[in-house]
Amino acid sequence: MQPFTIVSGAAIPFMRANVDTDVIVRIERLTSLPKDQLGPFAFESLRYLPDGSADPACILNAERFRNAPFLLAGDNFGCGSSREGAVWALMCLGIRAVIAPSYGDIFYANCFQNGMLPIRLPLDRIEALASRCADGSALTVDLRAQTIQCSGSDPQPFAIDATRREALLGGLDAIGLTLRDDALIRAWQDQDRVRRAWAWNSVRA
Amino acid sequence: MAGRTLFDKIWDAHVVRDLGDGWALLHIDRHLLHDLSGSASLADMTERGLVVHDSDLVFATPDHAVSTRPGRDGTTYLAGSKLWSALRQGAQRFGIRLFDLGERGQGIVHVMGPEQGIVLPGLTMICGDSHTCTNGALGALALGVGSSESTHALATQTLRLQRPRHMRIRCEGALGFGVTAKDLALHIIARLGANAGVGHAVEYAGSTIESLDVEARLTLCNLTVELGARSGVIAPDDRTIDYVKGRRFAPKGADFDAAVAAWRELKTDADAVFDREEFIDAREVLPTVTWGTSPEQAIAIDARIPAPRIAAGAGADATSQALDYMGLEAGAPIAGTPIDWVFIGSCTNARLSDLRAAADVARGRRIAPHVRAWVVPGSEDVKRAAEAEGLHQVFVAAGFEWREPGCGMCVAANGEQVPPMARCVSTSNRNFVGRQGPQARTHLASPAMAVAAAVMGRLSDVRALA
């Protein structure tokens, strides 16, 4: 997994609430395309007009935000479906961090599986960032220092769970980490087969 | 020490290792795979050279990308056939039990799991699908996961999880005539908001919940993720135990007795503290439909479509955007809105009791001539049971198409889409932009309300048809 340390670049002010993962990427794109080719289809129902041309009124199409590493959004970003393709589609656009007041729980967990940083900030602070960044001005997110900085102003702190931060900074592989505890897992299972025999015997039907 | 919630009790009983800061390595008792996310996780396992830790705790069935056309096989929807065969091959390679098309047990994961007794009270279970929360209705700790977490669980039979906050929704009073668990769920989401449950595990409690049969509870818990929460749980009771007893993968004999003794302990302590408590008066709930593009944009069938709030900001924009997408006018009554399609199906509302409720309204009636209407049973077992009762004949006589089990038009991953600009009344769970197809307009409702709309050709109050 790609580690996240310091990233700088433009931030797209996409200040909608309840952006769901169906809107981020349609399901049939995930049935037919590999995960690194979802970029053209990210937010397709918002980015394109019915004739298939790019909608010039859509902020996601603005030239100054091409390959922007940050997305500023409203409450409950990534709600809905568990599709991890939503994170992959954002990554295909070049997004490395989303900044929103809250996230769908499964989307939030999926971000950390892919080296994407979902930052939680109060809405008024995000709106302030959105107006500062509307012209394409750069932000810098430093996960090590846990700060966000607009060019020409002081860094502002953000909070994140320490365990998640460590995993993202190191690009850690969770499976490898857990398999180090495999003896513990197997011992727990052996005890549980006695404690809850019903939970184990019944799968053999 | 303060009392523990039902969620705490299941969680605590599955901690393999405390990882600190509220994190735990949690044992996963059951893992369900479907053709979309399951095939991805299995491919990931092969690519990384990993082995499945406990293949007998994993169950697979194709549901998302398979056609529901009568007479279908795994290749009828060609674009989905590679996912179907990847699931079959992966299951075979790793020794995972598969319930394939046409076999008993096949169906929408969240329909077949409880139905087959794979999901039981007190278990932890996951699936690479957000509606895994459905299974909490049995008193299981059921979590939707992404495909990476699914791979982690295949390789280790555990997940690294952080304990969520706790939220209890107490519902008191009897549901009125024509009002179902679906209406209750939409009412709760509209009242509390689509983000109310973010970061929380929800427990549903109260006299309303106790009076719901298990299939209705599955409908209610199914919509928990539309409230923003990853899990929703209901304490197991006599109804739950009666429901589970005798199912194919349920414990038998002395194991069943031991299980029941354990399940009786699965309730929240009187002195347990929730981070958030909400109260719903079930007597206030009316037949409910959505008007917008988020499940929180729901109103009673006798209400008027809301206007964008006067105050500026994201709220007003969201309402205007939704009205624009849905082709509706603020202030107009929602009842009477002409419709084109009706979809009865999905992990929300495609169980036998749902089909019975729909058939009760359809019996002796015809759908409006301009409406196209489908019934997609939730599983092979539901389909066979419905046919044994003659429900399929009721639907066909009324002008509905009777189809094969799968997710179908709820998620439209199998090419079955509502056409652009067409308006569909759907018993599913999401009215998102483009969910049922590009520019498709979705109104979520109960099965009975969906039939009422099909018959009248417009959004209608089912109580007027009774």
Describe the secondary structure blueprint for this structure.
The complex is a heterodimer of chains A (205) and B (466).
Chain A: E1 6-14, H1 21-24, H2 27-32, H3 44-47, E2 70-73, H4 85-93, E3 97-100, H5 105-112, E4 117-120, H6 123-133, E5 138-142, E6 147-150, E7 156-157, H7 162-170, H8 174-179, H9 182-195, H10 197-201
Parallel strand pairs in A: 1-2, 2-3, 3-4
Antiparallel strand pairs in A: 1-5, 5-6, 6-7
Chain B: H1 6-12, E1 15-20, E2 23-27, E3 30-33, H2 37-47, E4 58-60, H3 78-94, E5 97-98, H4 109-115, E6 124-127, E7 141-144, H5 147-156, E8 158-162, E9 165-172, H6 181-192, E10 200-205, H7 207-211, H8 214-222, E11 231-233, H9 238-244, H10 253-263, E12 276-281, E13 288-290, E14 298-300, H11 314-326, E15 341-344, H12 352-362, E16 372-375, H13 380-388, H14 391-398, E17 401-402, E18 423-426, E19 441-444, H15 447-456
Parallel strand pairs in B: 3-4, 3-6, 4-5, 6-7, 9-10, 9-12, 10-11, 15-16, 15-18, 16-17, 18-19
Antiparallel strand pairs in B: 1-2, 2-8, 13-14
How would you characterize this protein structure?
The complex is a heterodimer of chains A (205) and B (466). Chain A has 205 residues and is an alpha/beta fold. Chain A has two domains: 6-172, Aconitase, domain 4, CATH 3.20.19; 173-205, no CATH class. Chain A has helices at 21-24, 27-32, 44-47, 85-93, 105-112, 123-133, 162-170, 174-179, 182-195, 197-201, and strands spanning 6-14, 70-73, 97-100, 117-120, 138-142, 147-150, 156-157. Chain A has a seven-stranded mixed β-sheet with strand order 4-3-2-1-5-6-7. The model of chain A has no long low-confidence stretch (mean pLDDT 95). Chain B is α/β, with parallel strands linked by helices. Chain B folds into two domains: 6-276, Aconitase, domain 3, CATH 3.30.499; 290-464, Aconitase, domain 3 (2-Layer Sandwich). Chain B contains 15 helices and 19 strands. Chain B has helices spanning 6-12, 37-47, 78-94, 109-115, 147-156, 181-192, 207-211, 214-222, 238-244, 253-263, 314-326, 352-362, 380-388, 391-398, 447-456; strands spanning 15-20, 23-27, 30-33, 58-60, 97-98, 124-127, 141-144, 158-162, 165-172, 200-205, 231-233, 276-281, 288-290, 298-300, 341-344, 372-375, 401-402, 423-426, 441-444. In chain B, strand 4 (58-60), helix 3 and strand 5 (97-98) form a beta-alpha-beta unit. In chain B, helix 2 (37-47) crosses helix 3 and helix 12 crosses helix 14. The longest helix of chain B is centred in the N-terminal third of the chain and has 17 residues, at 78-94. Chain B is globular. At the A-B interface, helix 2, helix 5, helix 8, helix 9 and helix 10 of A face strand 1, strand 2, helix 3, helix 5 and strand 8 of B.
